[in-house]
């Protein structure tokens, strides 16, 4: 049962580590959030939702490229 215990402990450690990581990288996440740039007029948008709204209002005849959709993941 030692192995099982060690595994559980490692998982708890990892969970703690990840939680701290998420908190600490909030600023980085915000910086990285400006990644969906309009390929047509180069306007930076924070989320794909904003980019979609931007397309709807500025480029209604264009469709949001699939490449940008992947950036939000
Ligand atoms: Zn645009």
Automatic annotation (TrEMBL):
Disordered as annotated region, ranges: 1-26
Organism: Cymbomonas tetramitiformis
UniProt KW keywords: Cytoplasm, Nucleus
Chief location category: cytoplasm
Transmembrane spans: none
SUPFAM superfamilies linked: Expressed protein At2g23090/F21P24.15 (SSF118359)
Localization in the cell: Cytoplasm; Nucleus
Record bears the keyword Cell division: no
InterPro entries: MBS1/2-like, ZNF706/At2g23090_sf
Stretches with biased composition (Basic and acidic residues): 1-10
Name under which the protein is recorded: Uncharacterized protein
């Amino acid at each position: 049962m030692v192995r099982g215990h060690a595994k559980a402990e490692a998982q708890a450690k990892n969970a703690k580590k990840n939680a701290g990581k998420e908190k600490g990288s909030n600023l980085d996440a915000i910086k990285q959030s400006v990644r969906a740039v309009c390929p047509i007029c180069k306007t930076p948008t924070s989320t794909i939702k904003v980019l979609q709204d931007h397309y709807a209002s500025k480029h209604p005849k264009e469709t949001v490229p699939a490449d940008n959709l992947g950036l939000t993941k």
